[in-house]
Design goal:
The protein is of the alpha+beta class and 31 residues long. The protein contains one helix and two strands.
Amino acid sequence: MSKTIIITGTSSGIGFALAEYFGKKGNKVYG
């Protein structure tokens, strides 16, 4: 099941890593 995830600070660091991780799992990531 795909989820929609909003992450702030996705330009670098932990935010970027989280966005990449959840995106690869098939979720929709906004940030």
